Known about the structure:
The protein is α/β, with parallel strands linked by helices. Helices cover 36% and strands 21% of the residues. Strands 1, 2, 3, 4, 5, 14, 15 and 16 form an eight-stranded mixed β-sheet that branches. Strands 6-7-8-9-10-11-12-13 form an eight-stranded parallel β-sheet. The two termini are 37 Å apart. Fe (iii) ion is lined by residues 99, 101, 269, 291, 344, 346.
Amino acid sequence: MFVSSTYSKKELFSNLEPDLVIFHSNELVTMNTKYGAPRIGEDMAELAIINDGAVAVKDDRIIFIGPTDELISKFEFGKIPTKIDATNKLVTPGFVDPHTHIIFDGTRENELSMKLEGKTYLEILKLGGGILKTVRETRKAPLEKLVENGKKILDRMMSYGTTTLETKSGYGLTTESEIKQLKAIEILNDKHPLDIVPTFLGAHAIPPEYKDKTDKYVKLIISDMIPKIAKEGLAEFCDVFCEEGIFTIKQTHKILKTAIRYGLKPQIHIDEIVDTNGALLASKIKAIQTGHLLKSNDEGLKAMAEAGVIATLLPGTPFCLMLDQYAPARKMIELGIPIALATDLNPNCWTESMQIVIALACYHMKLSPAEALTASTINSACAIQKEDEIGSIEIGKKADLLVFDVPNHQFLPYHFGVNLVSKVIKNGKIVVDNRLST
Ligand code: NIG
Ligand code: FE
């Protein structure tokens, strides 16, 4: 939407009549960006809450935010077509899940017994399991099957409160099948109410046909995959799994330099299992966001803080890998690194629920409920560079809103493992109505 610089958004939207309002919210968490976007340090805990709060929506936009009595005196309340009474309820911006892998075929439930026997993630991969098993199955799947699988996941994500997500290719590892995955994302983005930011992750594993010839595979990525994908406009970001035994720092740098030249934004999976100095590389190339960071060294973390690289923490993954260690979130906040949270949904760590991720972040990484909510909304919007449109409840932004059947934000990690969402509003429309939730 065009917003003239001579008018404030408030003036522009003030004469419109709402078609939907939410009122009497016990806590309306606005996440007002005057505290910064992304929020860092102490500001991560600042939610900009309005008590007895109200929001008004016209079409897909937020046109009013304030106390309920102001809403009632401003508009002809009786004439508003859709009114949601949020008495004793929490209202927040829609969750933004900035790191997922939803396009795949086949499942890996059998790997739990291997993990219970003590096999590590990389050992399972070496045995031809893990990512490589999913690659075998995803290569065989027709496009329609990938779309069908993806739709089921998106429906579940939406019912748990995600309104925008990022998702990646990475289970094809040939030019053709990486493009097939990205086309599935494009189709889903067109058809499904959720908004999806697509990422090319051809550098997710070494395909079996390139075993011991990783440099050759890197060459294929650089000279064939990236140019074709950029030309077709199939991805916004390029990601690499930079890890010992997967792609080296040097290879990662090479891939991402090429991606940047082709107009793709850089992000990296770093320091998940071994510290390969990924955090330093992320700062050097000014990655928008980085995933995992369990093992990153202090020098790298300080460089990330200086460069403003967002750390997207994925506590579901160490949980599913049964690790004792989680990313050092408290240290990152102290250093001033902006933190986002994501599900990392993939066949190893399969959850659609940002509510579960918030609980894991609080119980295992010691985030406060307020910090975890910031990391799941405004900061995760920044991780995909969509903070001008989503991530907070502000006039002129997209009406992506959640109504929870709980009285305050501290309930989100407290009452865990169930769906606390009562209503999801996406682009100004009610897309989920869980009347009987909790
Ligand atoms: O972020 N670590 C690399 N990639 C994914 C997992 C993919 C898979 O195991 O299928 C992740 O955890
Ligand atoms: Fe991932």
